[in-house]
Amino acid sequence: MSTPTIHRHSSEHGRVLAEPVAYTDNDRLHSSLAWLRANQPVTWVDVPPYRPFWAVTKHADIMAIERDNELWLSEPRPLLLQAEVEDRVKADQEAGVGLRTLIHMDDPHHRDIRKIGVDWFRPKAMRDLKVRVDELAKRYVDRMAEIGPECDFVTEVAINFPLYVILSLLGLPEEDFPRMLKLTQEMFGGEDAEHQRGEGGTEDIMAVLLDFFTYFSALTASRRANPTDDLASAIANGRINGELMSDMDTLSYYVIVASAGHDTTKDAISGGLCALVEHPDQLARLKAHPDLMGTAVEEMIRWSTPVKEFMRTATRDTEVRGVPIPKGESVLLSYVSANRDEDIFENPFTFDVARDPNKHLSFGYGVHFCLGAALARMELNSLFTELVPRLESIELAGVPEYSATTFVGGLKHLPIRYSLR
């Protein structure tokens, strides 16, 4: 039997997936992704300083890969990192001192670790939390009214509202919230000049992680000595097969909950409001039909797609859409592309608050489906349920600015002019 030919020709369109600045230009990004879906849905991308990978841009292919978590593993390359950073993270993990969150893990360890926090995000827990989330939503819409008629919605509302929700759930003191915010921005903003620490190099990124670990090491010791009724205590005292989680698993759990638990929601909230401002007919429709809030929230999440990609590595020779993928090579799952796939979404470039069905992949799929999806949906629902009826007018007061990223990101500035009841 002849060995199939593997075509490794990197197109200019594929390069956008390894260019952080491309995610600041939606027209360029989506134009390239649409071309890839139509012409090279599985394409080779070789853009230093990243190691090469296969980009997968079709919704159905991404779902198939995420569904087969034995063929496709998160380790050793769960997300796109520069080669130097990737090597440092791997070395630290092998030495037992590196970040190793749920997104880095595979079953059975992933399943066991996930169980530690899953009860905190079940429907009953969400119902119990809703009163607090609604209170915070009102607080921040009231704040908009106080500081109007103009504000930067990202820095005044979209960052702080989900930050307060997730850190309250963890049980952290309010005076520590600004520290967690800065560390999160530095971690996810390592490729954005405004948010990165120092020059954004490997040592700067490692320093951010060390600061996270230092903070959460003290928190773990405190919660083990004096358990409390919060998520931080559940993590600190979480056990697998009767044994406490390792120090690194414990610290990594805190990092992913405290950072991703609010930063991705910030991106969905700000992206959602920007979409409503830029599509006033849909805002008017939502004001007239508040019962559409559930579908509107899903459309905001599809439209913004805060998590741009995850990666998987093949455990054996295989193929995707007829393209051979050798064992040990990695694929990048472009959720941004999947959420505009013409084969799945009718008029995918139309923002439609009544879109139903809406099979977006913003929360991933399969065993790695986002642990906090229900919380994110509730936060968006609470905030826009409070905000939309009170809006008398709203428009852009400047140019929206997006973060340079290849992983998690969205708007970093959204200047608006408005009036509220």
UniProtKB/TrEMBL annotation:
Keywords from the named record: Cholesterol metabolism, Heme, Iron, Lipid degradation, Lipid metabolism, Metal-binding, Monooxygenase, Oxidoreductase, Steroid metabolism, Sterol metabolism
Cofactor requirements of the protein: heme
UniProt pathway annotation: Steroid metabolism; cholesterol degradation
GO terms (BP aspect): cholesterol catabolic process
Transmembrane segments: none
Origin: domain of life: Bacteria
PROSITE patterns in the record: CYTOCHROME_P450 (PS00086)
Repeat in keyword set: no
Pfam families: p450
UniProt-listed InterPro entries: Cyt_P450 (IPR001128), Cyt_P450_B (IPR002397), Cyt_P450_CS (IPR017972), Cyt_P450_sf (IPR036396)
A single MF term (Gene Ontology): heme binding
Keyword Magnesium applies: no
Family stated for the protein in its record: Belongs to the cytochrome P450 family.
PANTHER family, alphabetized: BIOTIN BIOSYNTHESIS CYTOCHROME P450, P450, PUTATIVE (EUROFUNG)-RELATED
The protein's name in its UniProt record: Steroid C26-monooxygenase
Lineage start: Bacteria, Bacillati, Actinomycetota, Actinomycetes, Mycobacteriales
